[in-house]
Amino acid sequence: MKSPIHIIGGGLAGSEAAWQIASAGVPVILHEMRPVRGTDAHKTDGLAELVCSNSFRSDDADYNAVGLLHAEMRRAGSLILRVADRHKVPAGSALAVDRDAFSSDVTRMLAEHPLIEIRREEVDQLPPRDWGQTIVATGPLTAAGLAEAIRAETGEDSLAFFDAIAPIVYRETIDFSVAWMQSRYDKVGPSGTAADYINCPLDREQYGAFIDALLKGDKTEFKDWEKDTPYFEGCLPIEVMAARGVETLRYGPMKGVGLDDPRTGRWPYAVVQLRQDNALGTLFNMVGFQTKLKHAAQVEIFRRIPGLEKAEFARLGGLHRNTFLNSPRLLDPFLRLKSRPWVRFAGQITGCEGYVESAAVGLLAGRFAVAEQLGAELAPPPPTTAMGALLSHITGGAEAESFQPMNVNFGLFPPPTGPVAKGRERKRAYTERAIAALQEWLGAGRLAPTSTESDNPGESL
Fold first, then answer.
1. Average pLDDT, stretch 252-269?
2. Residue 47, exposed/middle/buried by CB under 10 A (0-12, 13-18, 19+)?
3. d(C-alpha 103, C-alpha 84), whole Å
4. What value does the mean pLDDT take over residues 398-423?
């Protein structure tokens, strides 16, 4: 019997790592502290629970770095992408899922795998040497005990920022005499139509009043130890963006371009978009409306939005603290902690940002760990791939002194060689090169998936 690989944390990264390892025939012990100990953001004890948006963002594998990452992970036998594809809901060109069905299915598949043992317990120290190979995938909400142990081991203060959660509205409470369904520029997504988003328009006067209300609204008070914690730029609260200038939101999440108000036939001055949040289409989340407003203020202010005057909220917005390592300084190219090479880190705690990026780093950590366990050689994926570019950035490509969480983007890739046009042609050059390099990497390694379709728990990679 092969020795098990331990994984601490049952989020997206931990779940993906567990699947990769077990599918290669190596046993896994997956430690998840919920429900023994909860967090401020999680609502269930399900594995791979989505606590913020229900979107995995763009599914365009030809011209978008996130969509390319989706395509690479599918080719590498990703559990997270397989289940996401099974539970997708309309979201324009994005891949969005029914969050409850998604988490339930991931939990079921891991629980049914004969080589995966799920232990519901908190691990409050770094794993001892006799555990053997271990992956720490505790995410942005790492419990205080383990976080302190990591800080003591590394001699570094983990950086931290706040992630803000957007509200969710019951569709039946939206006024469709004002709001309308349309995707921006009528773009059709992987599972929807050209009308996947609910749009609530604001004219100049309404927009100005809304910005004023955001700035004056009652905000959540920070504790002393939270006051100097910076936000991640990709998930700023709506009122923080508003404070940067009256036009900031109108050129950000509230831009009206590409949307035709059926009452006027024109683009609105500003717009609030809502995206489907569950398979039934009964819940819609307010896109880009992460917030630190107090709940009463949210209800009062958001009901000023045309079409949402009588809105009822299935969930109001909130904040959770996000912690991550200075990975370029602390981790090697195989995600191992330099001071304890039997310990790997994966997911958002490494300083990647986003659901897909987190799962991708979990996939890589799982493959690296199982290769080492089997005595196989597995080089990191080439930096010309999305997974390789992301890995390279967080394990050395970024400046350690100014390291901040990063989404995958073409700026992390080596530029194409030779004369390449700009715009869409340049992006296509990146994606075609990436897929070719990924196929070569999968073929050269001993862990390439034999199938990406079966749910057979005994399937090997």
1. 96
2. buried
3. 9
4. 82
Phi, psi for 123 (deg, rounded to 5): -105, 115
Amino acid identity of 421?
Answer: A
- Examine residue 380 and say whether the peptide bond preceding it is cis (omega within 30 degrees of 0): no
Q: Which residues contact 456 (CB under 8 A, 6 or more apart)?
A: none
**Could you tell me the CA-to-CA distances from 146 to 4, 17, 51, 95, 125 in Å, in that order?**
21, 20, 21, 33, 5
In 3-state terms, what secondary structure has residue 18?
helix
Query: Which residues does 400 contact at the CB level (< 8 Å), separation at least 6?
Result: 326, 328, 329
In this predicted structure, the answer to whether residue 340 has a pLDDT above a threshold of 90 is yes
Task: Select from 459, 447, 413 the least CA-distant residue to 76.
Answer: 447
Q: Convert the pLDDT of each residue in 56-82 to its tens digit.
A: 999 999 999 999 999 999 999 999 999
Amino acid 34: pLDDT:
84
Nearest to 135 by CA among 245, 24, 7: 7
pTM value is 0.79
130 Cβ neighbours under 8 A, 6+ residues apart: none
Instruction: Measure the CA–CA gap between 215 and 291, rounded to whole angstroms.
Output: 12
Phi, psi of 446 (to 5 degrees): -90, 5
User: Measured between alpha carbons, how far is 278 from 100 in angstroms, rounded to an integer?
Assistant: 8
Determine the Cα–Cα distance for residues 318 and 220; give it in Å rounded to an integer. Answer: 9
User: Residue 419 and residue 399: Cα distance in Å, rounded?
Assistant: 29
Rounded Cα distance between 257 and 419, Å, is: 33
* DSSP structure string for 273-320: EEEE-STTS-EEEETT----B-HHHHHHHHTTSTT-TT--EEE--EEE
Domains and CATH numbers, the chain: 5-158+325-444 (3.50.50.60), 164-321 (2.40.30.260)
Residue with tokens 């490509």: 397
